[in-house]
Design goal:
461 residues; Dna Ligase, domain 1; OB fold (Dihydrolipoamide Acetyltransferase, E2P); DNA polymerase, domain 1; 7-stranded antiparallel sheet; 15 strands; globular
């Protein structure tokens, strides 16, 4: 902690201009970012470059750019934030790179690893270079297409920089290799890799489609438990779990203290700590974060965006969306949740996977999920052939769901009736007596809603 400086840059306020915020912080004795005011008529790239060059000479910290921030509070408030983001519209990063930030080195190897989603990503190891006092040996290779197009492999000569003075990046290849280092098989399971193709029909990433790939399994488990807030379940422990047969998220959720003790090198104290951490995380994690942790919603939908859907439909309503066809979910999320123009379909496919998973594992978590009626339309043939009779009450929404999913609602009980739904399954009305004589199932309203949810979610389209 002695080597860490806290440098303040903002006061959360709807009354103070940016300049006033920084002046208050300075008066309170905080270290404050260097700043200056530039009139709009002088806001030009050469002015920013000059200012950045001056600051770099006097600043005790490495700098790669500026933040251009609106001073006037009224304009800040009117601009607001990006849709579903904590990023303000009134501030923008402005960066400039000089030749002093560029270094030439030789590639020693391209290392490939598989992600939880199956994408096989490259990391380029090169001959050690010292960048502003920091020794670096690796740069991101971005994706397989980059490695191929830039001609990168062992022996290639590349120019690198540290983007943001943090992550090394490859600017260009000065000397290419004749055969770029592109793997044919997965580095984890040896399955033959395939190319992903973007909207422009360009090859981008290599992908391993083996769902049981050991590398993918490990990454999925690590990502899940890290996302729900467990720090102690590191890569080494996860590897031990997998080696001992606890090779899925569900199996680890079910582990006891005794199970953890069976892992190599795990004693009672550590086993108890791991078990308690998992149980605590499970009962405190928000549904949106849990949804994100499963990975069913891909990389474009994080917990913040998923929370926006929950705010519209509620915890129960989000799960009930899975009753609908993919296109129906897409349409209703697109129309009801702001900012889902490009991701409604991704959400639809994700909730189709998440809802049955959650219902199978709901006993580990503590969300208030009640059997309630879905509030949106949709159709399928999942109830084809089912004849439902309601007695002692009517429910138009339930009747609509039955009909739009291929079922029939009748007023009288017959031998063809599938289920009789009533307020009191133990009652003695004539309809219930007739149902019993025919051996027809009788359910309460809540039992029927649970049955309806389960059959519509679990029965495949």
């Amino acid at each position: 902690m002695a080597d860490i400086d806290v440098v303040m840059y903002e006061v959360k306020s709807e009354k103070l201009n940016k300049r006033e915020q920084l002046q208050i912080l300075r008066k309170l004795g905080f270290k404050v970012v260097s700043f200056c005011e530039i009139p709009m008529e002088s806001a030009r790239p050469e002015v920013f470059t000059k200012r950045l060059t001056e600051l770099r000479k006097i600043s005790p910290y490495l700098m790669d750019g500026l933040v251009l921030d609106v001073n006037d509070i009224n304009k800040r408030l009117s601009l607001g934030f990006e849709t579903h983001s904590i990023n303000p519209k009134y501030a923008r990063a402005w960066k400039v790179r000089t030749t002093e930030d560029e270094y030439i080195t030789t590639v020693e190897e391209v290392e490939w690893s598989v992600s939880k989603n199956g994408l096989v990503k490259p990391r380029v190891r090169f001959r050690h270079v010292d960048i502003k006092g920091v020794g670096v040996n690796f740069a991101t290779g971005k994706n397989a297409r980059t490695i191929q197009e830039m001609g990168i492999g062992a022996g290639a000569i590349i120019k690198v920089t540290r983007s943001g003075d943090t992550i090394p990046d490859i600017l260009e290849t000065i000397k290419v290799v004749s055969t770029p280092d592109i793997p044919v098989s997965c580095p984890s399971c040896n399955r033959v890799l395939e190319w992903t193709v973007n909207s422009k029909k360009k090859k981008v990433d290599l992908i391993c489609k083996n769902e049981d790939c050991p590398g993918r399994v490990q990454k999925r488990i690590l990502a899940f438990f890290r996302t729900i807030g467990i720090k102690g379940l590191n890569k080494g422990t996860v590897d031990k779990c997998i080696k001992s047969g606890f090779d899925s998220i569900e199996k680890i959720l079910a582990m006891t203290v005794e199970d953890f003790q069976k892992l190599e090198g795990i004693k009672i104290k550590s086993a108890t700590k791991l078990y308690s951490a998992i149980k605590k995380a499970c009962i405190t994690v928000k549904l949106s974060k849990l949804m994100h942790a499963t990975g069913f919603f891909g990389r474009s939908l994080g917990s913040t965006k998923l929370e926006n859907v929950i705010e519209v439909f509620g915890d129960s309503g989000v799960l009930e969306l899975a009753i609908l066809h993919i296109d129906a979910i897409n349409n209703v999320v697109y129309s009801k949740v702001p900012g889902f123009k490009e991701t409604a379909l991704t959400f639809a496919y994700g909730i189709k996977k998440f809802a049955p998973w959650y219902r199978e594992n709901a006993h580990y978590f503590k969300h208030e999920i009640k059997n309630s009626i879905i509030e949106v339309g949709g159709s399928s043939d999942k109830l084809n052939g089912y004849i439902i009779v309601f007695t002692k009450f009517r429910d138009k929404k339930l009747e609509e769901i039955i009909r739009t999913n291929g079922g029939y609602v009748k007023s009288n009980v017959s031998k063809k009736t599938s289920i009789v739904v009533t307020t009191d399954p133990y009652g003695s009305s004539s309809k219930l007596q007739k149902a019993r004589s025919y051996g027809i199932e009788i359910q309460s309203r809540d039992e029927f809603i649970k049955w309806l949810n389960d059959i519509l979610i679990f029965k495949k389209f």
